[in-house]
Amino acid sequence: MCVDISYTIMNCRSEVLEVSVEGRQVDEAMLAVLHTILLHRSTGKFHYKKEGTYSIGTVGTQDVDCDFIDFTFVRVSSDELDRVIRKAVAEFKDALGNSGSDGMGQISLEFYQKKKSRWPFSDECIPWEVWSIKVNVVNLANEQERQICREKVGEKLGEKVINIVEVINRHDYLPKMPTQSEVDNVFDTSLKDVQPYLYKITYQITDSLGTSVSTTMRRLIKDTLAL
Amino acid sequence: MDSDLSSQDRKDLDKFIKFFALKAVQVIVQARLGEKISTCSSSSPTGSDWFNLAIKDIPEVTHEAKKALAGQLPGIGRSMCVEISLKTSEGDSMELETWCLEMNEKCDKDIKVSYTVYNRLSLLLKSLLAITRVTPAYKLSRKQGHDYVILYRIYFGDVQLTGLGEGFQSVRVGVVGTPIGTITLSCAYRTNLALMSSRQFERTGPIMGIIIDHFVERPFTNMAHMHPCSYRSPGEDEGGTYAGIEDSQEVCTTSFSTSPPSQMVVPGKEGGVPQVPAQPNHGTAAEHGRVPSCPNGQSPQPAQPTSCSSEVKTVFCDALETTFTRKVGAFVNKATTQVTTTSLDLPFAAFAPRAYDLEVNDPMVHPPPSPAPSSPLQGSLHSNSSSHSGGQPQDDFVMVDFKPAFSKDDLLPMDLGTFYKEFQNPPQLASLSIDVSAQSMAEDLDSLPEKLAIYEKNIDEFDAFVDTLQ
């Protein structure tokens, strides 16, 4: 049921994880996965010194207990980053709820590098790693099922963490450490305590036909133009 | 093999491996303390945070790790292992998992030591942080305190996995290639917890007098090296620096270069490297099997936890003593007894008279009352037992017929326990015990026409019945 896929296209590594959760578990499940990835893809703040050297700040970590899942995950100690991720997850959850679909969607965490282009072209964003988490929301009938779901989803999330660690551990492509002038093309330097690689979070809601909404829109437009 | 590695690189690599091993042990043991761990990020490097990660150093754990390493480094054929096991209040114990830091012969000559290896070791520590919360022992360790405690043991040499039972699983945390070999970090964990589901440890007393005796008995000599996963929070100053590594010479490299490696700057001894405060009576730690105990009344260094680490609390008393209350059956009025692990070097130490005072009033010594007692009776049993603390002589066991709470004798002529036992083995159904050989197939077939005739006669009845169903 939960098939995790890994593939590479154009030097961009893509990982797909799937989870089935109950409605109130969506937030915590997404936070657990996204924070686990970001833990591995964040460093301390860089401090550049003269002679082309730099030092790296310290990253703290903290345990987070889930309320609706029997699971604890580790995130970097950065309230700023946590707020950003929570906001994105909340938007995703709202979209899932409002879509009227069967509760299927996908949230993607994409790490990219910026490539500066000359005017009039805008900067290119070149992804080098994309994590997609497919979510399937289930409805449960009674408290007993919910209790079982708490434990089962906890176990599944544990498996996802192990999968994530496995992928990270392959030590595949990572952007080269940048010089001071290039650091904003590789890292998100906007936070004051940690420095994740440049990332963006997007999501898609799948309608009940199994096609994503964006695909449907594209098809509609294509069909209209073909007439 | 090492001729390609410069002496500086080799020195750095050895240092990285040594501190990686020490930090990995800290992460593993801290993950089994039973509490949530929290450390602060700091944008200014202090020079004592190895691998750019804020991982506290519990002095006792560092001490044990260094003792196990005995000046050596993990290498090919020399693995460093941290064994996590569980010990119940009845004295039974069971190995839960073994974390292994090993090295194999596969070398990566081209890898840059001071940069790539260091960063990959940092990544590996982050993976270790994540994975330690995922193995089954994590949940068990979060619930420790009343019925059981989690212990750790560090050893060096050959990996021993036989204590994990059959069907143990293995998870690989990660690998880092170096010019002298590939470092691998993995965990083998017991899966056969069926005899000991985590629910069993939420009970506060034995049920129906069943004694849990399914565990591997550890010989007492081994027990001497086990240490409870608990500690006293070290004194910290406001700057957020951590009780650092004892050797102030070992400052970690926190400076990197975007230009060729030859220009790398290594910070010297920066002023901020804290010394480990001297531990009272720590010198006695070397005594075989004895865990150092703080004399009564002497408080540890003034604890000034920073706001982010205030969640980390001392669970047990400031010495590495574990105290648990011996459970007795319900309705027993005898005072309870307490066992500590400090006297484990004596066989049958639990029966020896205690020679020292326990800290009676220290709230840390007595586990707080059960957070969710399943019945008011059991809740009061707990508070009853915790008020009878040290200084009591060891009492003999009194066998009492266990009466489950709220059982009523007048409804059933027997009590719940006997009822349960009897009906666990019900007699076989009469229809199943008919001697089949007495009837042959031929006889069955012969009796068929008769049966058909009867059914045909009563066909109207059957039809009427079917109609009522529709």
Automatic annotation (TrEMBL), chain A:
Molecular function terms from GO: protein kinase binding
Subcellular location(s) per record: Preautophagosomal structure
Keyword GTP-binding tagged: no
One CC-aspect GO term: phagophore assembly site
Keyword Iron: no
Keyword entries, A-Z: Autophagy
Pfam families named among the record's database cross-references: ATG101
InterPro entries: ATG101 (IPR012445)
GO biological process assignments: autophagosome assembly
Family statement drawn from the similarity comment of this UniProt entry: Belongs to the ATG101 family.
The protein, known as: Autophagy-related protein 101
Organism of provenance: Cyprinus carpio carpio
UniProtKB/TrEMBL annotation, chain B:
Superkingdom, taxonomy of origin: Eukaryota
Location of the protein in the cell: Cytoplasm, Cytosol; Preautophagosomal structure
KW Cytoplasm (keyword) present: yes
Keywords, comma-separated and alphabetical: Autophagy, Cytoplasm
GO biological process: one example: mitophagy
Residues spanning the signal sequence: none
Biased composition (Low complexity): 375-394
CC per GO annotation: Atg1/ULK1 kinase complex; cytosol; phagophore assembly site
Record flagged with keyword Cytoplasm: yes
Pfam families associated with the record: ATG13
UniProt feature, compositional bias: Pro residues: 365-374
Compositionally biased spans, kind Polar residues: 253-262, 295-308
Gene3D superfamilies xrefs: HORMA domain
Annotated stretches, region: Disordered: 253-308, 361-394
Ranges for domain Autophagy-related protein 13 N-terminal: 88-192
Family: Belongs to the ATG13 family. Metazoan subfamily.
Matches recorded under PANTHER family: AUTOPHAGY-RELATED PROTEIN 13, PTHR13430
Protein name: Autophagy-related protein 13
Native source organism of the sequence: Cyprinus carpio carpio
